[in-house]
Amino acid sequence: MRDNLAIHAQEARRAAPGLADRLGEHVVAALIEEVTLAPKPGLVDIRSRGAHHDLDWKLMCASAVALQPTFAELARAGIETRPMPALRERIGAIGRDGERRMLDTTRGVNTHRGAIWALGLLVTAAAREPADLTPEGVAARAGAIARLPDRHAPALTGHKGEQACVDYNVGGARGQAQAGFPHVVGAALPELARSRIRGDSETAARLNALLAVMASLDDTCVLARGGRSALAEMQHGARRVLEHGGAGALAGRRHLKMLDRRLVDLHVSPGGAADLLAAALFLDRLQAETKPIH
After folding, report:
1. What's the pLDDT tens digit per position in 148-162?
2. Distance between CA 12 and CA 19 in Å, rounded?
3. What is the pLDDT of residues 193-251, one digit of tens each?
4. Is 45 helix (H, G, I), strand (E, B) or coil?
5. Which terminus in the chain has less CB density within 10 A, N or C?
6. Residues 6+ positions from 219 with CB-CB distance below 8 Å
7. Within 10 Å of residue 240's Cβ, how many Cβ atoms?
8. What is the value of pTM for the model shown?
9. How many other CB atoms are found less than 10 A from the CB of residue 198?
């Protein structure tokens, strides 16, 4: 047994640099693809601040690039640390360091806290078993990691999303991860595939994937700012866009524009859905990885 563990550790050290760096680059690319996508209702994109006053496209991109070493380190942890409890605690520490790196880059503005959690779990899970980069496989492994305790994590963070989970009795980002990212695997990626098959542009397909998440997600970013009434408006508005052909149809685009105006008026932004879109884009990128990376 010890010989097998030693052999695995040796192989992991050899594989880690190329695999970890490449996966980290995929995460950053997915984050930049997500924030650049436009027009996203209520969200920062390349043309608008959405419902935000302290965020813009340039800051979001700078934050994503600054986090590349964090995501590569998370991937390395997935390769090198086989005992699951130890892995959970190692990536928890890396994630908290990444959050500090983010805040240093943005001068205290939260740009990617949710993304560090969601994509951090997914990149760890992808690196752990690079022979299985299917969305279902990666998401299931990420869920198994998320369900483990981290003895060193703070009991309470004071973040708005955490409070929204308590106030509205929803699972939030933690519940989504622990369930194996059902809105990514069961909503965003299927809608992305359907839209591509239908002949929609890639921009429209990605917007439709976002809308598919928004249509049913209990987004704590929206709940924290606007409560249940704002969440209901967001979900209903997203469904209406899809019912009218999505972002690739004229009627769908009209409803998308209306939804964007309404969310900005309400001062709510579906940041949870945006994080899950970035997660979907990351998993979509992994489909090009048909064999282990060395």
Report:
1. 999 999 877 778 889
2. 10
3. 999 999 999 999 999 999 999 999 999 999 999 999 999 999 999 999 999 999 999 99
4. strand
5. N
6. 231, 234, 270, 271, 272, 273
7. 18
8. 0.93
9. 14
